[in-house]
Structure formats: structure tokens, C-alpha cells
Specification:
heterodimer, A: mainly alpha, 8 helices, elongated, B: mainly alpha, 9 helices, disordered N terminus
Amino acid sequence: MTATRELIDTLVECATPVRRLRPPFVRAMLWLAFAGLVIALIVMGHGLRPDLALRLHQPTFAVTTAAALATGILSAIAAFVISLPDRSRWWLLLPMPALAVWISTIGYGCLTDWVSVGPEGVRFVDELRCLSILVLTSVPLTIALAAMLRYAAMLRAGAVATTGGLATAAITASALPLFHNHDATAMILIWNLGTALLITGITSVFGRRLFGLLAARLLASGTQI
Amino acid sequence: MSPGPPGRRSSLTLVASSADAPVGAERNTNRARDWSGLMARAQDGDRRAYRALLEDMTPYLRTLAARCFREPSDAEDAVQDVLLTVHAVRHTYDPGRPFGPWLVAIANRRIVDRLRRHIRARSREIELSSEHETFSPDAANFQCEDTAADAAALHAAIATLAPDQRVAISLLKLKEMSLKEAALASGRSVSALKVATHRAIKSLRKRLRQSSETP
């Protein structure tokens, strides 16, 4: 009891004014605006693929890109909402419809390519440029998201890390076809899925650890006088 | 126990302390509104409001924690954990929303985390009783005849070792010093101690095997 009283004294002593968080939708939009800026900078550096206008008229390409983008936007909103302690976990379902469409178009694209081209349609090309775009897009987005959601470390670390990872993955995957100029559609689609799985997996696994470290630091800094 | 504020949904619910039990739902709603106002002022840096809020909600948190932990000290640790978390994430509270669900969600999270840690620790650790306690002198550790005979054989074998090996075994294995400590105590280098220990164990193994084979 005495220890709790002492703890309250310490907490009161270091109770400096805090700035309330903006509504989660506003914060999600800020992160998405940052994502747009990162992608715009990469477009300036790498340039768009030459046949982008043509490709956008192809239904599979357009639907996949749109579904990835929608998954990214909705996951970002879900991550920011569920990072708050008093919001319902049902928000986790928000990106699911878009995710289902995205995954099904990837599967459909793979199947049609396999049927029309055969095993040649699905090939992995050593594409460093693609990898660099992937890293250049996903790393700043992940860092920004982790910084903006660091307080969730003590609340719903796993769910926030996974949803945030999905948001980053989906945004990265939707940006990738803007630069990638391979004709092997399935290759791009597998890149989409691979990117999503890779980034979601990494952030889910390391996000928990990162959030664990952040939680310890937050608790330590919170009680420093 | 009285019902919590409107909008709650977690498995842990907002309850009043036993002293307030007859007061009823209206009082509890007022309290939740008060807490909301106090937190809003605390966010602006009002320390008196913050102290009032923390002191007011501590008995309530204690009630929540007492439902999940048998040991009062564990429950108190959980309360402190919740208070620390509330402090660290107080900027996430929106004064436009009810305070109860916000607090209960945090308390729920911290108490469940602590319970998980407890269960994990209990599955890996065994509590020591007085029977497990022992002392370093040989007399306390070798009580039955067999072990005493083994100890005597081991000590006899150690006595036959070369002096440098005997010192190494004595410091590193019998006195359980670290290599650095043993190096300091004996004035020998760490690598020399490692070599001496390796040779000593080899020759001890040989001698003890010989003595067990001879009837």
C-alpha cells in the first residue's frame, strides 16, 4: 500500500501537460499522406513504368492495385483506431473485404498466367531495382507507423503490429506496379503477395519486440522526475 | 458491488468499492464523469486533479486485481502496473468519451498480461522450501554414506593431482569461482587455468574409473 502511495506521489510529480492525440482517422490520413509523399519521391527518382496507362486499363491489374491500396488505407485506419484502449476489436475486420479481393485477384492472376503461359509465367527474376523500391517504400512507412503508434506497446501490441504491417505491406504492394515493368503478370502478383507476407510477418514478429522495448522505455520515461 | 458506467464491455467491469456499495448506479455514473473531468484536467497539467484521480481510482483497481490474484502483493503489483500504464498513455484519453471503458480496457490488458507472466513463471519455476536450502561447507552436503564415500574418493583423487591442477579444480569447481576470480586468486592466467582444469578433469576421470574397477 505504501509503495502504491509512493508511486502515486512520483506519478503526480512528473505529471506534465500532455497533448491529446488527434482522432484516429486524422492520424491515419496523416500517415497515408506521408506514404503518398514517399511514393511521390520514389516516382521522381525512379520514374513511372512506361506502359502504366495501358496496364491500368487491364481489369486484373487495376483491381489488384486498387484492392491493395484499399487494404492499405483501411488497415491504416484500423491500426490507428484499435491502438486506442477503449475502441472495439471489431475494427480489425475493417480491411478484410479489401484484403479478400486483393488476395483473390492475386490467385486469379497466378492461375490465368499459369494456364496461358505455363510455368514460364511464374518466374523469379533477380530484380534488385524492385527490391530497392520495396525497401525504400516500406522502411520509412514502418518507422513512421511505429513512431506514431508507440503508445500501443502497452495495450494491443500484437494486433496493432500486425494491422500496421498489413497497411505498410499493402501500400508498398500497391506502389510497386507503378515502377515494375515486367510483363509477367504473375511475377508482379507474386511480388505483391510476397511483399505483403514479408512485411506483415516481419512487423508482426519484430513489432512485438519493438513494442516491448518501447513499452519499457515509455514506462521508464513516464516516471522520470 | 454496483454496475459500471454506460458503454463498458470488457470482462472486467467497473465496480464501486465496498464502502460505496449502497450508493447505486447514479453515484457511479457521476464518479465516471468526475474521473473523466479529472483526467481532462490532468492532461492539461493539473497535478491536484491528477492526484485526486489516481487516489480515487486505486481502490477500484485494487478490487479488480483482487478478483484475479490470490496474493495481495500480486494484486498490488498489478494495481501499480495499471497506474504506470495509465500515466504513460494518458494522452490517448479523449475527454469526449466515457472514462470507464478506457480505464477498464487498460486494467484488463495489464492484469491479463501479468496473469500470463505468472502462469508462465509457475510452469518453469519451483518454489524453494526450507528442505531445498543448503550450505556450502562439505559437511552440509554429504550426509548419506554413499555420497560421503564418493566425496572421500573424489577428495583423495584431487589430492593426488599436480599442484597447479589441484588449485584450478579447487577454485573453479569446488569453490565455484569464475575464471576471472580464480585468475585473481591464484595469480595465474585464465588460459593457464583452463588448461589445468581440463587436464585435471581428465586425470580425475581416469583415476576414479580405475578405483571403481578395482574391487
